[in-house]
Amino acid sequence: MTESAPSPYIDTTRPHPARMYDWFLGGKDNYPVDEEMGRKVLAIEPNVPVLARMNREFMRRATRWLASQGVRQFLDIGTGIPTSPNLHQVAQGVAPDARIVYCDNDPIVLAHAEALLRSHPEGSVDYVQADVRDSAAIVERASKSLDFSKPVALSLIALLHFVGDGNRVGDGNSAAGEAGAHEIVSGLVDLLAPGSYLVLSHVTADFQPEKAEQVGSLYQSGTASLHPRPRAEFVRFFDGLEFVEPGIVSEGEWHPELGEAVPGEENVVKAGYSAVARKP
Q1: What is the mean pLDDT of residues 12-38?
Q2: Which pTM was predicted?
């Protein structure tokens, strides 16, 4: 069951990253303001819809691989608007007894949470409303469904490029300081049992710096801050972990044999990194 919460307020006057992503994927859970901003992004990089589909396919292939390796617990933070097949459908397609917890702090996702909670009878699916910056609260609430003394696959798909590097105490930006993306990930991983996995995908400016800057400016002006990170910064997310082969690659290059290729991806310039790693 989802946590009880008041009916979410959804602002349809400003573009929203989750709804824009839904529009890029051809979904219907978006508004004209999201399409308008989406079309501005496409004017800069027409391949964004293909890149979005490649990202989803990476998530599905990674989930399928993890379930085939015996992982039976999944924590997906930054769930986004449901796009079938969702992570739980993939995991339970391999292992019907898999238990999945989705987590997001977004009222858009909360409004669609009911669609996420249709589990295979042998497993379970739950939804937690919490912010990725509050790792302790996420784990506490997810513990109602997951046993964190056993391995968990933690997925942070296309989320962290919307999270900044944080503020240090006394830097003039935050009185108390705010954890950045790397601190958030390390804090979550610290709470996982040995044998757990981290699954990440992240936008980078390494391949198309000018386009990345232009798209980042668009997001900044209308919807959210975008933080593309170079490969060295992506690697830092996996400090202390053991990469699963083939290591750090673009989304379409991670075990393509585990899922069908996205049409048109062979013509797309790389725009992000992805990887799966195990906690020893």
Answers
A1: 91
A2: 0.91
